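Worked problem 6 (solution included).
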Amino acid sequence: MSYLPFPSRYDRFPQTVVSGTEGMSFQGYPAIVNALRRFGNGILAIEMYPGVDVSMFRSHVIDLLGADAIFAFEDNKKTPEEFSAMLDFLLSEDRVFGKMTDFAPEDFFQTDMVSKMKVALETTKGFRVVFGFGASLLPYDHLVYVDLTRWEIQLRFRRGMPNFSADNPREDNLKKFKRGYFADWRVADRIKQAHYLRADFLVSGDDPQNPVMITRSAFLMGLETVSHQPFRLRPYFDPGVWGGQWMKEVCNLPENHGNYAWSFDGVPEENALCFVIDGAPFLFPAINLVFFKPLELLGNHVYRRFGKEFPIRFDFLDTMEGGNLSLQVHPLPQYIRDTFGMAYTQDESYYILDATPESMVYLGVKPGIRPEDLIRDLELANAGKADFSDEKYINRFSVKKHDHLLIPAGTIHCSGKNTMVLEISATPYIFTFKLWDWGRLGLDGLPRPVHINHGKNVIQYDRDTEWVKTNLINRFEPISDQEIRTGLHELEFIETRRITFREVVETSTEDSVNVLNLVEGKEAVVTSVDDCFPPFTVHYAETFIVPATVGTYRIQSTDPEQTCMVIKAFVRK
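Solution. The predicted structure is:
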């Protein structure tokens, strides 16, 4: 089945060229070694994000620097038993959910051993190197930071890499991700925010065979560039039990996967950015931009409300020729704060990017149902003792292309099969309480996690058929001939606008970061009203970000005969 009337031009590997960076990149181990040998004295700390291939970097770089002494800082980390005593009450036995840690980086290491290493480091003469996660906690004269993107970490988990804080190479990958999300990465990001911009050099650790190192100056130039112009993140795609076939064609994906279920193409905590520094591609976690340019990227009122967090998420949910998503609900704001330590919740919406005559969405409950009956039947079905009668309890609504369905937290929902969804939501993206998964196993052969124990505490039963029709489906409000407001609901902090154009149309960031997707048309170009950035081209289904500092900007179709549409999301004041 074909989903596009024209050849796809979707770019899976977007990058931002940073000008004026000649001589500021070092590609491959020999070039990195030559650059680092210039230090030759004092203490060089090589800080590494958890998951970096430490042994590879040691054998190909550290051992070749001619140091008088080498110290492996990770020798000081707590034992798996000590980590368990410290973290288990936060992580629990649940496969998915834990509670955010507020531990300091020093809490991950044994104080007496760190003190002894500090003395040894300071009393040893000559050129000394200390390396590994936590190395920057010791005094240093020079610093190198080796980073790693979140998606690459997840792929390494699947290949058997353990968490930093556990000896768990064969553990369930969901539990590895959970431990990273709630513990390891939070502590590592505290080190990153304190030391990253102090580094003389920054290294992209995603490709251990051919790493790229750049100077701090080059990175700062890249941050300045990308925080004042439109840009795209590096998307990733993953299969799933309900996955479909739409993204294979539209996003130029390899055919060797049976399906692709979802894509993140607008989530800085998960996605990467790529700077081209003197011709070399430097891949790094996009969250670094949020950490180090929050005001320019997010805007004043967004930064005041959320701090150094990116609150808007765009992703794809593909069930074309696939199956239903799991029936689910997201936590209410107070529940997510009290239970998981999160500051805000996962309100969301489904923008229908493509549809078939049988496309539908499950949304809200039938009127007059008794909560105890719904929960009982869900529990019986998940225990394999009965079938779940979704038609008895849950509304089904037919949907078509460009419909927009709003899903404030507490609303039961899921996408049905043969439906292509652009999900626009708040960013706490793992807090989905599955209620019923149609009796399926995951791709790992295990039952997919179901959380009726959480879900029953947040389902809003007043969101029945008529309430949903009135409040959540196609609440379109014209703003001009070209622009309509499509949501979101008053309970949600995100506002969305759909803009239709052929010729030039002007729009504004509204003092908020804008996240957009070209939902209709082959290609459009984004331009500056005052030539502050070069023209930026986007293709059908690509998500792109416009920093708040851009202010007013223009969009137009590259073909005057081709009508285009973008959906734009921002944080309302």
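Discussion: The radius of gyration is 25 Å.
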